[in-house]
Each structure stands twice: as structure tokens, then as C-alpha cells.
Amino acid sequence: MEKYRLSKYNEFIKYGSSVIGVNLNKHLMFNFDKEKYNLLIAHKSNLTALKESSPLLFSTMYKLGIIEDIDLNIPDILVLKNRQQVFSNESFRLIINPTLNCNFSCWYCYETHSKKRMENETVDAVIKLIDSLATKKRISRLQIDWFGGEPLLCFETVIKPISIAAKQICAENDVNLSMKMTTNGFYVKEQMISFFEEHNLRSFQITIDGNKEKHNLTRFYGKDKKGSFDTVVSNICLLATKMNIALRINYTKDSLENCEEIIDCFPKNIRQNIQLTLVQVWQDRSENNETIRTELNKKELTIYKNFREVGFQVNMIRFACGTNCSCYADVYNEAVINYDGRVFKCTTANFEEDKEEGILTVDGEIIWDEDMLSKRLSKATFDNKICMKCEYLPLCNGGCSTNPIVKVIQDKCRFKPRLKQSIKELMIHFGKNNYKIRHLEVLKQELSSQNN
């Protein structure tokens, strides 16, 4: 009886005089000659014979994951790793909404812009929570994300006191502290930069809506609807001299082609600190069919390459190696604290209308709704018949619990075409550079940077 099989997670393409192979579970891409590839394929039904006749080839393919034991159950192993990651106690991600208010009214925004802000009592409760995480739960890493609304509306009253306290608590308890912020960039001031640096707030996500004309039609302020493009771009340039910027371009089918007009707005010396991500707004995306999505993917790829060629980082390969959970909200040690002390797991919630998943007490304790929490966390998002059979499972991990990749009604995956295209791009990059072996994460990083 045969003891071995070719892994279902293998991909091969012929490139020049050789063959490029990858095992998506091992995350390793390699190059070997066509004769060895043909020999491997010729023995796919009798790999034991290959082991006897070509032991070196067999051993190499086995180590690379191309050949595996016939009783190996990788989906079950991935479920186990997912459970370990979901319930790990080493770190905590704390997302804070100082307010849901915003100085813009973007037409596609899902939030209700309440003008209320986090009061002192809730600020104190958040600080007590941080202290408890550090002193009682003994976490080793704390990541604080500022969200909203526009968080910089509360820079003095919420961000500063919590950041100062968090820095002191983490320093006293040997906890590694990092901070990020999602902001529209309008209220960034030069005098804030030193505070950001001192409190390890070094990463910002800022959104632009296409070129200047398109952006100003969406992100304007004041009774005269004055456009914000120049101010936002100026502040991105200010931050990018010392910080990492995730530049998100929200686009529609009508605005995507004009995105490249913003390139010259950013000096060449800061572009390496700006990483571009293209995101189609969800209302526009709902009108996509397969043909439209394929065409948009091609346009995105061209734009990514053009930005990369002039010095920007680009987020064109969207899967992560080394993680077994694809969404921040689907781990136990994560919470979104709303301005009013109500607690959620996901930042895509409508924080005014959706039911909270927990409450932050004045003593700094989160009391979770265990029924809601169990429905989100008790099962891996990919633990379903479609994902468990998918050849891209080791890279995908099933999406998030709020918006799973697999829709039961459609009975098909909506991200598989993108994953397939990503692997193809990595293989072409691998071949062009005449590599012998590379980890997928290394290839991803290379593809995000200039001159690759």
C-alpha cells in the first residue's frame, strides 16, 4: 500500500528551462530542472518507487512538503494552530474609539457620527484595564489602536492621558508597547510628532479618495464644502518623514484609473515610508460581477506596480505567512472600547446601533456577553466543508467571523481568484531573480518594495 502522496497544496509553473514549485503549507518556493519535475510527476502514483530509485530527489521533495505522508491531515493541524493562536495570552490588542464624531461626512461611511466623546470616567476605566492586563494577566505585548470617528478630535482629552499612563504602566511591568492610529489626517499638527514618537505611536493609516478632484468631492469641510486634499497630503508628508504610513485609497469603478495622479504629491525621499493599499468601497463592490472584479484586479495590479517603481511600498499580496488567524477580531485577547464604555470585537460595527459584545466596568474589567463571544470564537472561521478542502487554506485561513470568505448560499470562495493571482505574481518574481529557494513572506516583502 502506498505510504506517500503529492500534497494538494503544491503549485508548479514552467519557467524557462526549469520548473518553479511551491508548497503553500510549508511556504517555500524553489527551483528545479524539468527532468526532475517530470520524474516526480511520473511517480505520483508510486512515490515509494521514487524513494527507492531517486532517494535524494524524494528526500528533498519530502522536506519541502511536496511529498507528504498519505495519512497527514493538514486541515486538522491548521485548526489546532488556529485554536492556539486565538486563545494565546501573550499579547493584547486594545482598540479605542475616543469619539465617533468626524469632521468629514464621507458618503460611504457606515458610522453614525455622534458628537459625544469619551468622558473622564471611561478614560480612567481604560487605564485601569491596561494596568490589569500588565499586572494581573502579565501580558508581554500591548498594542493600542486609535480609531473612531476621528480620534484626533480627542487628542488632549483622551489620547494623551491614556498614552502617558500606558507608557508608564508598560515600562514598569516590562510590557512591549506599540500604538497605531487610523485617522483622516486633517488634524495632524507638527507639535504632535514628538509626542507620537515618545509614546511609540509610529504607524498611521490615512485614506485618500483618488485624485484631488475625487477626494475633495468626498472629503470636504465647512459650510462652503472646502476640499481637504491639500491639507491631508501635507500632513501625510509631515508624518512620513519619521513614521510609517499605510496610505489607503478608497476607490470606485469610476475613480480607480485616476489614482496615479497623486504620485507627484509625495516627495521621493519619503515614499519608502508610505505603503499603498487599494480598497474598493463596499457600496460600489456590491455591484461587481466576476468579469468586473477580474478587470479591477488587473487595473489594481498595474497601479501597484507603477507606484512601486517610483519608490512607494505597495500592499499587492494580501495573505500572511506565519499566522493561523486572518482577522484581529477573531482572537480572545482583543477588544474595541467605544467612547461610552461599550465593548465590541470588530471595528466595522455600527457602534451606535449594533448590540455591544461586552461592557467595560469602572474598575477596568471587561464583562463579555459569553453567548456572542462563543459564536465568534468557538470555531475556526475556515472549519467548513469548502475551506477545509481548499488548496489555498494555508494562506487564507477562512477570512473573518464577521464577513467570512465563504458564503453558504453561494457555496464558493470569493477570494480564491486573488490568491491564485498572488501566487502567480510571486512565482514570476522568483523566476526573474533566478532564485533557488525563498520563503513566501520574503518574496512578499520584496514585491512590496522598489526595484523588484
SS strand fraction:
15-25%
Q: Kindly state the mean pLDDT as a whole number? A: 93
Taking the alpha carbons of the first and last residues, their distance comes to: 46 Å
Biggest β-sheet, characterized?
Answer: 11 strands, mixed
Just give the CATH class of the largest domain: Alpha Beta
Describe this structure in words.
The structure is a single chain. This protein is α/β, with parallel strands linked by helices and 452 residues long. The chain has 2 domains: 4-78 and 382-448, no CATH class; 85-368, Aldolase class I (TIM Barrel). The chain contains 16 helices and 21 strands. The strands form 5 sheets. It has an 11-stranded mixed β-sheet. Strands 2-3-4-21 form a 4-stranded antiparallel β-sheet. It is globular. The model has no long low-confidence stretch (mean pLDDT 93).
Helices and strands in order:
Layout: E1 4-6, E2 10-15, E3 18-23, E4 28-33, H1 34-42, H2 47-53, H3 55-63, E5 67-69, H4 74-86, E6 91-96, H5 120-135, E7 141-146, H6 155-172, E8 176-183, H7 193-198, E9 201-208, H8 212-218, E10 220-221, E11 226-227, H9 229-240, E12 244-251, E13 274-280, H10 282-285, H11 290-309, E14 313-314, E15 334-337, E16 342-344, E17 358-360, E18 366-368, H12 370-377, H13 385-388, H14 393-396, E19 406-407, E20 412-413, H15 416-432, E21 437-439, H16 440-448
Helix pairs in contact: 2-3, 5-6
